[in-house]
Amino acid sequence: MNKKKVELLSPAGTLEKLKIALDFGADAVYGGVSHFSLRIRSGKEFSFEDFEEGIKYAHERGKKVYATINGFPFNSQLNLLKKHIVKMGELGPDAFIVATPGVLKLCHDLVPDMPLHLSTQANVMNVLDAQIYHEMGATRIITAREISLRDLKEIKAALPDLELEVFVHGSMCFAYSGRCLISTLQSGRVPNRGSCANDCRFPYEIYAANPETGTLFKLEEEAGIGTYIMNSKDLNLASHIKEILDSGAVDSIKIEGRTKTAYYAATTAKAYRMAIDDYYAGKMDTARYQYELHSLQNRGYTDAYLVSRPFEKHDTQSLDFTMQLGTHQVSGVVTADGTHFLCKYKTFPGDEMEVVFPLGSEVQKVDNDIGSTYERDGKIFVKLKQLKAQNGKIWEEIHSGNVNPIELPTKFPPYTFFRIPASADMNTAPKK
């Protein structure tokens, strides 16, 4: 069984999110440029130069970057794919994430020293498939999201040298391990090539047709049931970290979300960092982790299938809404130099904002002309007495979209977030 400390792996949709995820506790991040990646939209945020800078940033901190080359290529793209593999290898990531046997072999042939991680898209659920891919050169398997913890333990017992990675948080796909064509049929955006339009999140009206008479009629649903019939809840296994790590079968726990916000990257990394560190310290505080995770926008949470069999679960779909606001609203983010913040919602003088910063960081307690920082109930807060912009202008209020950096009463860790409790009028997510 695995005796190493488990790795925390976070999404890196942009260079900024890469840095934030690492600063807030991730041991490694995954991402890539748009070519041959299953997140084309996030990949477009990365140039080769930015990705190389991200790798350097991670390595300077003793952390890792895994490059995604996990799309499903056509024959017409194979020559371009070969060039892309070589170029990505030259940037010096710590592993490639790939999804098909052919691409796995191609990567091994072109960059023979590169560790290869097999994507969850390969649907590995058992020892036989894991062994085949391991023999082909995969050093790690990112197992299917439908796998059980019991099956993970059996794979690790049979193949102790093969690393196993599992998703513990983030969006869940309606289809089996993401193998979906709904978006392809409706909008021409191919999920398995990185451009899913998330059609399963849309509301649908249901009709019935009689082929003999040509009669078509709408099926009316009961009030409050909703029409988000394919909308999966989000995965959240923070309360099961002890059970997962006790198994000894898991080498890396993974967070989904390359297209999510910077606040999401920070908060998920911090919550699961706390859970992992608490586990090895012999203590667990699930309420503490869930407090952070429930501050995020979500589709409702489920623990899915890792700790329960599919037939035992009847709460994995969110039928009444596509997205809901979390318990908190992000109101600001601190600049890279730590001296100012940018408004992300709306701020007035005297507003109390909770401070969210990386574990191990500190904020000086002050009370001056600009504002004050203080602690209450184990949390740090900031309250501004005046909204003084970097150019010297004093604002009576500021709103999201105002690009003027606002002075802070003391220096904060870079990319610290400010948040306020969410109210009902903030939540604009469509509901029944």
Automatic annotation (TrEMBL):
Keywords: Hydrolase, Protease. It holds the Pfam family Peptidase_U32. One of its GO terms (biological process) is proteolysis. GO terms for molecular function: peptidase activity. InterPro entries: Peptidase_U32, RNA/ubiquinone_mod_enzymes. It comes from the Bacteria. Belongs to the peptidase U32 family. PANTHER family: PEPTIDASE U32 FAMILY (PTHR30217), TRNA HYDROXYLATION PROTEIN P (PTHR30217:SF6). This is U32 family peptidase. It comes from Sulfurimonas sediminis.
